Amino acid sequence: MRLKIAHQTRYQFAEPVSYALQQLRLTPKTRRGQEVVSWQIELEGGKEEVAFVDQFNNATQLISIEEGARELVFRAVGEVETHDQAGIVGEHAGWTPLWLYNRKTPLTAPGPTLRKLARGLGADFEDDVARLHGLMELIGAEIAYETGQTHAQTTAEEAAAAGHGVCQDHTHVFITCARLLGFPARYVSGYLMMTDRVQQDASHAWAEAYVDGLGWVGFDVSNAISPDEKYVAVATGLDYLDAAPVSGMTFGHAQEGLDVSVQVQQQ
Known about the structure:
Elements: E1 2-17, E2 19-24, E3 34-44, E4 46-53, E5 59-65, E6 69-82, E7 88-90, H1 112-119, H2 128-142, E8 144-145, H3 156-162, E9 164-165, H4 167-180, E10 185-192, E11 199-200, E12 204-211, E13 215-219, E14 231-237, H5 240-243, E15 246-251, E16 256-266
Parallel strand pairs: 8-9
Antiparallel strand pairs: 1-6, 1-16, 2-5, 2-15, 3-6, 4-5, 7-13, 10-12, 10-14, 11-16, 12-13
Helix pairs in contact: 1-4, 2-4, 3-4
């Protein structure tokens, strides 16, 4: 399947900004199950300072704002050829050692709710993949998908205790529990083609766990499936902060508005 993607992020400032630096992870990976056919990123109100591949093998750009600008716009547009691999990405690659993906972060530190959830999974599964699918189903049953109740700083423990969240929260909870069960796990940010709409409010997120003999395998708790040809992976990391599409800082006291538009459709 060939997917056409258009992702725009627009910052608007009430007053001219003297300095801002944004980090972009908006270029998809070419890896098993997906090949980038074409991709370009356009800027308005800013310029690229440096581009590099980070420790998690993510294509990354640092963008500075033009002095005095009141608007900063990033547009990522391109096409990606995808194939259904039943969620299997394959063996580990990149500079970060596999053992690091067992490390907890502030967003994925387990508390009593998550430890109880992981213990409740049981051990009656024929193999590791079935066990991880069981974990995905358990999290989906315990934590309802509900927008407007969490934010980017919500931890996995907080979302689990509250019993609701969005794809970011589901992913953090899965990662935390998978690590408790002994699986290296990582966060994936990317895109999902939905069947009922082209226009979306945000990109998507899911988890990958490392299974001996298979390598990395994807699990999307929010949709209760392993990623197929409708998914495009962009960035990976220990949690959301490592894989966020756009992050950064702004100096000054001007009020800031943010508008995000994502379109994913079959070409």
